[in-house]
Amino acid sequence: MPERRPRPGLLTVTVYRATPPPRDPGESTARLTPVRRKRRIRRRRVMAGGLALTVLLLLATVILVSVYTDAGFSPDGTSPTSTENKQVPKGVREGGPVIDLTGQGDLRTYGMPARTIALTFDDGPDPEWTPHILDVLAKHRAPATFFVVGSQVARHPELTERIAREGHELGGHTFTHPDLAELPEWRREMENSQTQLAIAHATGRSTRLMRPPYSSFADALTDKDWETVRAVGAQGYLTVLDTMDSEDWKRPGADAIVRNLTPKDNAGQIVLLHDAGGDRSQTVAALDRLIPLLQERGFRFTTISAGIGGRLNPAAADDTVWRGRALVWTVHVADAVLTLLWVLLITAGGLIVVRTLILFAFAWRHSRHRRSPQWSWGLPVTQPVTIVVPAYNEEKTIGPAVRSLARSAHPGVEVLVIDDGSTDGTAAAVQRLDLGNVRVVRIPNGGKAHALNAGVRLSRNDLIVMVDADTVVETDAIHRLVQPFADPLVGAVAGNVKVGNRRGLIGKWQHIEYVIGFNLDRRLYDTFGCIPTIPGALGGFRRSALTESGGLSTDTLAEDTDLTIAIHRAGWRVVYQEEARAYTEAPATLKELWKQRYRWSYGTMQSMWKHRRAVVDRGASGRFGRRGLLFIALFSVLLPLLAPLIDLMALYGLLFLDREITIIGWLAMLVVQVLTAVLAFRLDREPLRPLWTLPLQQIVYRQVMYLVLLHSALAAVTGRRLKWQTIHRTGDLSSAPVPGR
Questions:
Q1: Which of 104, 132, 472, 596 has the smallest count of CB within 10 Å of its CB?
Q2: Which of 76, 122, 468, 684 is catalytic?
Q3: What pLDDT score was predicted for residue 22?
Q4: Catalytic choice (201, 274, 366, 450)
Q5: Residue 122 annotated to the active site
Q6: Could you tell me the pTM of the whole model?
C-alpha cells in the first residue's frame, strides 16, 4: 500500500511499492542470458515465418498443379487458325494418316489395310462415358485405340488399366490438351513425357503413338502442324491422324454419326470419335449400331499398331513406372487440396451469409429495443466512480484523455492514473493539468494488467471504469456507461469505442472496422448474452465482479478478453452501452497496426485456450462456454481465417475460370459488405462519407488483416510466446468529434 493516504480533492503523486510482476508465461523456468533469449526469440520467429512461407508456397504449388492438370478444352474438330501448308511434304499430304519421323531423317506414312477399321477415341478416359464405350466394344468384340489425356489418366488410372486389360491400345493425347503448335519445345516435351508417365503408372506399359490435339486429316496439315509432327517424331512418337471424322463433338445425333463413319468403298479407315469432353450418349448409341453394320459388310476392327504391323503398348521401364506414380500422387494431392479449398470457400461464404442475416435481424432489433421510450436500465445510477487509467510513456496522449475524464458529467468522478514505470514525462503531463479530482500513482513497470490491478486495489469506489491513456470520452460517456449497473446482475459494461484519428486512409479503414466489426458485433453478442471483450479503451466494472473473476491476468496478451470471459463464467451479465462513446487513437501506420492486431489476435486465441474448459462446465460458465466460445471461434477466428479464400478463389477464377461469373460473385460479396456497413453506420448514427473507401478497404486493408491473423495462428501453433508490444502514439485526436472538448 502507499505510504500515505492522499486527501480528497488534491492531485497527488505517490510511489506505490508493488510486488514484482509474475514471470512471463512464455519464459523458460531456466535462467536465460540476454543473448540466449534473443537467439530463442529469433529461432521462433524464423520457425513461424518459415512455416508461414512453406504453407503459402505449398498452397500456391498445389493450386498451380490443379490449374495445369485441369484440362478444359474445346473439341478436336475445330478449324485451324492458319491454312498455310507450303512446308508440309507432298508425301505427307498424300500419304497415310500415320506419320513416322522416328528414323534418321526418313519419312514414312502408313494407312489401314483394305476393309480394316481402326476406331480411335480422344480426350478420355472419362468416368461416365468410357465404361459405356468399353462395354459396347466388348459386346461386339471390337478392339480400339484410345488417345488419352494424361491428366485424366492420372485421375482415373483404373479406367486406363481396364482399357489395356481388355485388349485395347493406348496412345498419348498430351497431358492437358493444349494446342502443341502454340507451345515452346520444352512444354511440348513435358506434355508428352508426363502422359507417358501417367500411362506407365496405370498400366505398366508405354506407348509410341501420339495424336496432337485439334489435328484432323493428313491433307489438312498446316505449316505449324508440321512443326508439331516433326517435334513429336523427334521424341520417338508416331503421329496418328484420321481419315474419317464422326463429328460427334457437334452432337449431331446417332444417325448422323453413323453416316459420317460409314465408308463409301472398301478402303481401310482410321475414324475419330470421343469418349470424353461432354455428353457422349450419341457416340455410344451410334457405336452400338455402326460396329455390327460394318462387320456385316466384311470390315474387321483393329488397333492402330496391329493395323500397321507394330507392337501393342510395350512394357514400361521400372523407373518410368515409379516416376509416373509420383506424378499421379501429386495430381491427386493437388486435386484434394483444391477440393478442400472449395469446401472451405463454401463454408466461409455460408458463415458470412449467416452472420450477415443474424446481424441484420438481431442488431437492428437490439438498437430499436434500446432506443424505445419504454426502455430503462432501472433507477438512475449516481454512485461515485473511480476511473483507472493505466499509462506507460503516454506523455503525448495522457493530457487530453485525463482532461476529458475529469470533466465528466457524472457526479463523484475520481480519476486514478497509474504510471506504469514511464520513462518520459507522463506523470508531469498529468500534474500540469492541475485537476482536483485526479490522482497519479507511480509503480514499477509490470505491464498493463498489473497496472490495472493496482488501480483497482487503490480505488475508493465500488464502480470502476477502465480507460486507456490514448482515449478521450464524451462528457456524458461515464454517466451513460454506469447506468446498466442499476441491474444488480450486471457485472461489466462495454462502451462504444470509436477511432479518433480518421484523417488518412488507414484511419478511415479502422473507423469502418470499429463501427462494423466491433460495435455492430457487440449488439449481436449482447442479444445472446455473450459479449467476448470489454474494450480496454472504455469499460465499466463492478468491484465485486472483478474480485470474483480473479481480476486481470497476465496469462494472455488480451487481458480485456480474458477478464470478460472470466466475468461471464463467474455468473455476471456483461452488456453493451452504445450511448457511452469514447474516441481512441488507432495506429497510424501499417507497421503499428500490424503490431496491435497481432497482439489482439494472438491474445484472443490464448484466452479461448485458457477458458476451453468452460465448454464442458455446468451453470453460467458452461452456458457461456457453449455459446460465447462458439461465437468467438466461428466469427472471430474461423471466419477471418477462411475469408482470404474468397479473394484467393476470386483471383483463381479471374485467371482460370469464367471471369464474368467470378466478378459477379465478388461484387455480390462486396454488396453484402456495403449493406452491412450502411446498417452499422446508421445504427451508430455515423455519417456515411467514409464508406467511399470500403471497396479499397476490401482489396488492401482486408488482406493485411488476413496476414496478421494467419501470422498469429501460426505463432500459436508453433508455441511461440509473444510479449506486450507498445504502439507509437502521435497524440493526434483532432478529428475526434468530442462535444465540449
A1: 104
A2: 122
A3: 44
A4: 274
A5: yes
A6: 0.64
